[in-house]
Amino acid sequence: MHVSRNLVDLIERNADELTHRWLELVRTHPATPSYAAHDERELFESAFKVYSQLGKWLSRTTTEEEIAHYYTALGERRRCQGFALSEVIQALLITRRVLWFKVLADGFLDTALDLHLALELYNRVMLFFDRATYFLAVGYERSA
Predict the structure, then answer these.
(1) pLDDT band at residue 1, thresholds of 50, 70 and 90?
(2) What are the residues whose beta carbons fall under 8 Å from the beta carbon of 46, sequence distance 6 or more?
(3) Is residue 6 a contact partner of residue 123, using CB atoms and an 8 Å limit?
(4) CB within 8 Å of 67: residues ≥ 6 apart
(5) Most buried residue, 10, 24, 35, 79, by most Cβ within 10 Å?
(6) pLDDT digits (tens, 9 = 90+) for 59-101
């Protein structure tokens, strides 16, 4: 993987901390009220899967079909659970934001090379979350 392995390791190593932060934010954010009443364990496991397997998700060997399969199913499940699409998308945006704040806070971005690797990571993260958001919406609509 061309993306800085150290930055990916930082996220994966801190997956538990990031997931707890995400859970705190998503359960109190005014745009995600359904998350406050939903099963905490199920939410935790879903977010933890993203953070703990970031390297896999960002790998060039992970196909768009794999992302489509996972996030289409998640969209279908969230609709069946009664979440509004806007809430599910906001929760995904919070996932990305928590991840990126960790990189900025602890990513040791001191040199031009560090910044270049962080930008490469940012581009891969954005592509992943763009695809995840699209397929999540497809799954949500499919279950209508």
Answers:
(1) very low
(2) 74
(3) no
(4) 57, 128, 131, 132, 135
(5) 35
(6) 888 999 999 999 999 999 999 999 999 999 999 999 999 999 9
CA angle 90, 143, 58 (to 5 degrees): 50
User: Angle formed by the axes of helices 5-13 and 85-106, to 10°?
Assistant: 120
Q: How far is CA 20 from the centre of its chain?
A: 13
Mapping DSSP onto H, E and C, the string for 5-66 reads HHHHHHHHHCHHHHHHHHHHHHHHCCCCHHHHHCCHHHHHHHHHHHHHCHHHHHCCCCCHHH
**Token duo for residue 3:** 């993306």
Please provide the size of the chain in residues.
144
C-alpha to C-alpha distance for 69 and 65, rounded to whole angstroms: 6
| pLDDT, tens digit, 9 for 90 and up, residues 11-22 | 999 999 999 999
Query: Which amino acid, 109?
Result: L
Give ∠ CA 92-67-40 in degrees, rounded to 5. 40
Domain boundary assignment for the chain: 5-142
